[in-house]
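Lecture notes, unit on protein representations.

Consider one protein chain, 790 amino acids long.
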Amino acid sequence: MKTKVFLACIFFVFNISAFAQTHQLKGLVKENNEAAAFYDIQLIANDTIFSSTNENGLFEIEASEKNYNLQIIYFNDIVYEHTINLTSNLDLGIINVQSSTNLNELVIETSKKLTERKADRFIYYVENSTATAGGTALDALKTTPGVTVTQENIGISGKNSVLVLIDDKPTYMDQQELTNYLESLSASNLSKIEVITTPPAKYQAEGNSGIINIVTKQIKQNSWNSTLGATYQRSRRNTQQYNAAFNLQKNKVTLQSSLNLGERRSFINWNNDIYYNDAFWQNENASDAKNKYISGKIALDYQLNKNWKVGTKASIYNSNFADTQPQVTTIFDRENGSVNKFLRNNATSTDKTFQQIYTLYSEYKLDTLGRKLSIDFDFVNYNSPKTNDFTYAGFTPTNELIPNSTYTGINDIDIKIQNISGKADLELPTKFADFSTGFRFSQSISKNNILALSKNQDGVFVNNENLSNYFKYIEKNQAVYFSANKKLSEKWTFQAGLRLEATQTEGYSLQNDNRHKNDYLKLFPTLYIMHNFTDESSLGFNYSRRISRPSYESLNPFRTINNEFSYNEGNPFLRPSFSHNFELTYTYKKLDSRIYVSSMKDGVNQASMLNAETKQNNYIWMNYVDATNIGITESYTAKITNWWTSVNTFNFDYSVSNIAISDQTYKGTSVSFFTTNDFTLNANKTLFFSLSYFQNFGETYQNFELKPYAKFYSTVKYLMLDKKLELSVSGSDIFNGREYSKQEMYGVTQKFKNVWDAQRVRFSLVYRFGNKNIQTNERQSGNSDELQRI
């Protein structure tokens, strides 16, 4: 029955595009025997079709069979008018016009928009901003209202996570790779940045997150550019990164390529204290990690004709990760404070990652009215073999080894994930409303194999059959959507969408000979209503329903040992969580306000399963959280002087969480403030200074409580060699703000103190050369949900 419903929806999507037959009208407009470039064309009947001539004076219009009044307009003057009966393709040939407008006497004064609130998104027009002059795409994000940018994260206030798109396509880069890429991209290449807190039906319903869509300018023909960059970073360890890019547009061919490589190092401390009734456990952990990586991509577009563009793209990512994790646990007696025992665990791990993404895509313009069909096919291959070696043992208060307490093991783990997906999107603007529809399919196959070896009394490693396992997981997803945007009047806009997703999953565990299947069909509606009081003031309401599917790691039933009192374990029986999201937005000039309510059911998280009697503290993935969040976000952009711009964001959140496994309800608030200030220090706009400050005033979420902390960020940037060479020095978390938190579970309190190695200084050098006016459109594949879950 579910399959029949879904196939009926697919049939509806394909047939909705069956509109009346259209014909082509074209002509060549000249004035004084020269091409009349960029003249307005209007084809008037019951409705009006708008177009314009190109730089050569040519125009082409697709329209249905009808009698029309053709008008050619130049600066509000009708320079040509003619009645046309369009019954077949019609070429009007050369049309000679004579305008009365003298450009030498014409003075045009316009006030360009900097921001705009639409029904489903907030838009920041980078090309109209003076604050980003001489800056990078990352600088442009810093000045975008409602967006928070640090060296560790790019986020949207009030959202737990964010998906960054470039030209409406996901980037599939980790945080560091994305930061490096945005720093290599000039802000002058950007048209606008869209902040989407409630994604419409066109986007996948996966994840209760926001979207940042970075839109680049239109491609310039017959041009090229290249970028070379190097970064050195000093924290508790050294990091080096190098990147290069080359882009070319020649006639019908567009080539885009990039290469990134480096070695990232980090040293992290995290301490965990557990307060039992009769004992106090002090856990001290560290991670000394090194990751050597190389990634690259190449994309090739070919313009088959004026309406049809095809392309292909390939990207790779290879890394070699090594980590050493010493751990010491000191067990105290709660009554007299004496040491009862020590636990020591020495672990090392190596992890190699190989990822390839291949994409084929096509874009076809159906007519000049804006109707367009886009098709994408994608393939992802991911392989990550890893080895974990560990030894743990118990020691007396005098540091003597406790007999028979030593355990040595090796876990050889191999993870292979393949995903294939395809999608089609159809945009159908009409006089009545703007429609969009499409479908998507995806299949993911995850194969996980663990060989657990334990050292026996003879010092020989043997297979531990209780821990060795093989797990295969298959997930199929089909989706179809329909969306309509209607401008009811000059002040009212209405948009609604509906996305239908069908999912079939199957998991098989060899150790338990257990097979688990799931099959569900869900609807995800979206609704937007907006009222414009003036050009600078609007009020809007948004609603959406979202789904969050478990990550592939969490579904894996493998059990990995931490020490004799702790292990990690996945759960193949996890269910997806669902959320309802409501937003009320208000924009007035430079102030943007957002009130939101979000309700989540069956939230997935890694639960700390504490047993106060046995002292076991095991971490198991479970559906155990129902949460409701109510909050408000305020963003204000101030142009204090012509050389000082300040973007300020305040967020307040109140949450109520029901924890099923402990049958408790937790209530609390989260309050934070973020400000970023950009200064232009000279008249030539070659010297810049940026200062950012983030303050968390404390946070209670679910059964966690986070104490207040603050972080400072600063950057100095200097442009040389006609602004082609950029040198920057930046400091991150300058005063080393530390995070302290605690958790309550089963009447036992845990306290955490983490030092994330975020205090660092970074030196960057970027050189851009070639035709600096080139703009290349970044196109990415359609596996965003699947890759986010790897």
